[in-house]
TrEMBL record:
Name of the protein: Major facilitator superfamily (MFS) profile domain-containing protein
Pfam family, one: MFS_1
Mode of membrane association: Multi-pass membrane protein
Keyword tags: Membrane, Transmembrane, Transmembrane helix, Transport
Domain Major facilitator superfamily (MFS) profile: 70-489
Superkingdom of this protein's organism: Eukaryota
Record's GO cellular component terms: membrane
MF terms in GO: transmembrane transporter activity
Transmembrane segments: 66-84, 105-123, 135-153, 160-182, 194-216, 228-248, 342-362, 369-388, 394-416, 428-446, 466-485
Cellular localisation: Membrane
């Protein structure tokens, strides 16, 4: 682009240290050229607005527009991801054509996990380079196409092959959506949008169960119900891809749907960057970002934090389904599948409410780590009950506690990680690595713990004990990560007191008051300030 960037790796200059009022706007004639965004005009774009509207009011309106144009399509993507992932569970539980036993089911899930998890860091780099419309929409399109093909598989080997290939496009959705959110919201306001997006997955899993219980009864065209589930959700996914392509905005540096004028682009930068000069909205790709990710101790720490909670969450979801069915049998005579699935909704609804509420609170206090510590004890308590009690009602109630721990804590742990990784490509890779690690381990272990042959004594207790161990590991990883970040901050504060502010790049400076507590500069060779909260 035409502007003279402070850092040769960045296409758009970042703010210098100071308050938003210190931002220097270029001349009217040079701004559209510098931004390189077609269709933006320098002429009086603010004319006609009420002069009494303050900068804060304008930013609030802009944030509302961002919310409505970013979060709905991403939540739809997450919902459809759940529906297409769950299809094979319906086939395993109700379709007798494939003669799926626990071993065959585990093989199918293992193959799916390979293609679903391993490429996720690469997918995020491609998302950053190609843009969300060019990447997310085709991923949805291909996912829908392959989901329909699940209905025409002739045997379990054919089903395994289709699930192997469907993992590729599905794996691009969650890490891509999560990364995309971090590019539109500043650190100090990231908790709420991530929580809304993440809560969509909790409600999506329960709604998908309800809808599938109705769809599975369709037997038209000589096909069984599980075929129609694959076909209908595949077609819905296919159609949603078209909507996403035309609706979802580009990244902020190239967008003209949300940010409709030069003035709004400048206002967005003031809102997004604020007083944090380490934030940027555009960056050239450098392969060095991969080395930064895999040599950063925080990568391992956040893998432990994320992996331990996401695997426990998926295991909890399976336990909740089993407990809902058992409670329905206890309360009703010959309960229908719809009744069983309705009992699965309340824990998911609680997960939605608590996830969003805690996300908002974490933004106000900027203390992510403490919230994750507290919620982790809900998970630990839930799995202790699963291991120690056979009472159906008590286990059903324990599912509510587990929903708070795994869903609410899981959402905030994403915010915590994203707030401690700067550099657009480094953050993209880090998110992909974390998602991939959790999905890979979950794909290898959950099928074994959930579908373990019943000839093994108390197989449900063994699986619950495994998830209990992961929940305890989750708490230990939180404590260790917070200690590490706090220790880093003490060293950096000492350097600041010694007058050392240069972080290895003459254009990157450290500030004492960041938007989300203390933070760091990722491209530095000298320690930086972290969001240890």
């Amino acid at each position: 682009m035409g502007s003279k960037a402070l850092n040769p790796h960045y296409e758009i200059s970042r703010l210098q240290t100071g308050t938003p009022s210190s931002f220097k706007v270029q001349s009217e004639a040079s701004i559209p050229i510098a931004l390189g965004i077609p269709g933006l005009q320098p002429a009086v774009e603010d004319s006609g607005e009420d002069a009494s509207i303050t900068e804060t009011d304008k930013q609030r309106r802009l944030q509302t527009r961002i919310d409505w144009m970013i979060l709905p399509p991403l939540t739809i993507c997450y919902f459809l991801l759940f529906t297409n992932r769950m299809n094979v569970q319906l086939i395993y539980s109700g379709d007798k054509r494939y003669d799926l036993d626990s071993n065959k089911y585990a093989i199918i899930q293992f193959l799916f996990s390979l293609t679903y998890a391993l490429p996720e860091p690469v997918w995020n780099v491609l998302l950053r380079r190609l843009g969300p419309r060019i990447w997310l929409a085709p991923a949805l399109l291909l996912s829908g196409f392959l989901s329909v093909f699940c209905a025409v598989a002739k045997n379990w080997q054919g089903l395994a092959a289709i699930r192997f290939f469907i993992g590729l496009p599905l794996g691009a959705l969650f890490p891509g959506c999560m990364y995309y959110i971090t590019c539109w919201y500043p650190r100090r306001k990231l908790g709420r949008p991530v929580a809304i997006f993440y809560a969509g997955g909790a409600m999506g899993s329960s709604l998908a169960n309800l809808l599938n219980s109705a769809l599975v009864k369709i037997t038209a065209g000589g096909r069984v119900g599980s075929d129609w589930v694959c076909i209908i959700w595949g077609l819905v996914t296919f159609a949603s891809a078209i909507v996403v392509f035309f609706f979802i905005p580009d990244f902020p540096d190239e967008d003209d749907k949300v940010l409709r004028s030069v003035a709004e682009h400048e206002m967005f930068k003031r809102w997004y960057v604020a007083t944090d000069s380490t934030r940027n909205i555009s960056e050239h790709y450098r392969r060095h970002a991969w080395k930064q990710v895999f040599t950063d101790m925080k990568t391992l720490l956040f893998i432990l934090v994320r992996m331990s909670t996401v695997v426990a969450r998926d295991g909890l979801t399976q336990r909740q389904r089993e407990n809902a069915s058992a409670l329905a049998v206890k309360l009703f005579t010959n309960p229908s599948d719809t009744t069983k699935n309705l009992l699965f909704v309340p824990p998911a609804f609680l997960a939605v409410i608590t996830t969003i509420y805690i996300g908002i609170l974490s933004d106000k206090t900027s203390q992510r780590g403490y919230y994750i510590m507290v919620t982790s004890w809900f998970s630990i308590t839930a799995f202790i009950i699963f291991v120690s009690s056979e009472n159906v009602t008590l286990q059903y109630v324990a599912g509510f506690l587990g929903s708070i721990g795994t869903w609410a804590g899981g959402a905030i742990s994403w915010v915590w990680m994203a707030n401690n990784v700067e550099g657009l490509f480094k953050r993209a890779i880090m998110i992909g690595v974390n998602v991939g690690a959790g999905n890979l381990i979950g794909g290898f272990t959950i099928p074994a713990t959930v579908t373990m042959p019943k000839k093994v004594g108390n197989y449900r207790m063994i699986g619950s004990a495994y998830f209990l161990g992961l929940s305890c590991l989750h708490f230990a990883a939180i404590v260790l990560t917070r200690w590490y970040l706090s220790n880093q901050n003490r060293e950096k504060q000492h350097q600041l007191q010694q007058g050392i502010r240069d972080q290895g790049d003459p254009n990157n400076t450290v500030e004492e008051d960041k938007g989300d507590k203390r933070y760091f500069v990722p491209i530095s060779t000298v320690p930086y300030l972290c969001d240890h909260g």
